[in-house]
Amino acid sequence: MVLKQLLEEKEMKLKGGLYHHLQVKFAYNSNHIEGSKLSEDQTRYIYETHSLISDKEEAISIDDINETLNHFKCFDYILENVYILNEELIKNLHKILKNNTSDSFKEWFKVGDYKLKPNIVGGRKTTSPTKVKSEIKKLLDEYNEKENVTVEDIIDFHYHFECIHPFQDGNGRVGRLIMFKECLKHNIIPFIIEEKHKLFYYRGLKEYETEKEYLIDTCLSAQDEFKKILDFFEI
């Protein structure tokens, strides 16, 4: 039902509907979690007018603008490819997200491809570059074999995806886009992790191995917020 509504509104180019609202809400929150300084109003203005109004004394990052525009395209991409989850889709999401950013001009960064340099995130080691491809394949194989995917399965996939951390940057945003897509695919109410819940989200990822409920509860709470949006739009 949600997927059908989003695709119809996207095709209609409907202003002020669910699709319009989610484009802004998703791009603002997911980018803000990763450090974007754009406000939600600025994000909305970029979406609606493809331009930006800022305070004269405010410095606006070109990367923040480009990654906002790119996130809008990523959202369209997951709607158009909702029933696919493979290595190509994951890499394409990263390529779209990081296109024309400063990272895309670094030869070693490899936009749309797996990381070349090891990284530590939140004090935790991630999968080494030489093992990323095999670990992603293993994760995809195990997940795609499931017959009745639950929201807990989707959250579990997200956790392991973030542990692998396949890209040099942009992993969180790609991972959250995949979560949203998989909820739509399996007729589960999707959700958006809001910036105000960032610390709970990070805690959930950090402590998932010992207490899964922290991350699950954060996601289910976000799902409850999403239900309110659907109620407003009478969906």
What's the arrangement of secondary structure elements?
Layout: H1 2-12, H2 18-33, H3 40-49, H4 62-80, H5 87-98, E1 120-121, E2 124-125, H6 129-144, H7 151-164, H8 171-185, H9 198-206, H10 213-232
Antiparallel strand pairs: 1-2
Helix pairs in contact: 2-3, 2-4, 4-5, 4-8, 5-8, 6-7, 7-8, 9-10
Kindly describe this structure.
It is a single chain. The protein is built from ten helices and two strands. It is mainly α and 235 residues long. The chain has a single domain (2-232), classed as Fic-like fold (Orthogonal Bundle), CATH 1.10.3290. A two-stranded antiparallel sheet has the order 1-2. It is globular, with a radius of gyration of 17 Å. The N and C termini lie close together (8 Å). It is 60% helix and 2% strand. It has helices spanning 2-12, 18-33, 40-49, 62-80, 87-98, 129-144, 151-164, 171-185, 198-206, 213-232, and strands spanning 120-121, 124-125.
Structure in a nutshell:
The chain contains 10 helices and 2 strands. By secondary structure, it is mostly helical.
List the helices and strands in order. HHHHHEEHHHHH
Enter the CATH topology name.
Answer: Fic-like fold
- Strand percent estimate: under 5%
Tally of individual domains? 1
Q: How many beta-strand runs?
A: 2
Q: Which stretches are low in confidence, meaning pLDDT under 50 for 5 or more residues running? A: none
Describe the main β-sheet briefly: 2 strands, antiparallel
Straight-line N-to-C gap: 8 Å
- The 3D shape can be described as globular
Helix and strand content put the structural class at mainly alpha
Please compute the radius of gyration using only Cα atoms: 17 Å
| Mean pLDDT across residues | 95
**Which percent bin holds the helix content?**
55-70%
Number of helical stretches of at least 4 residues: 10
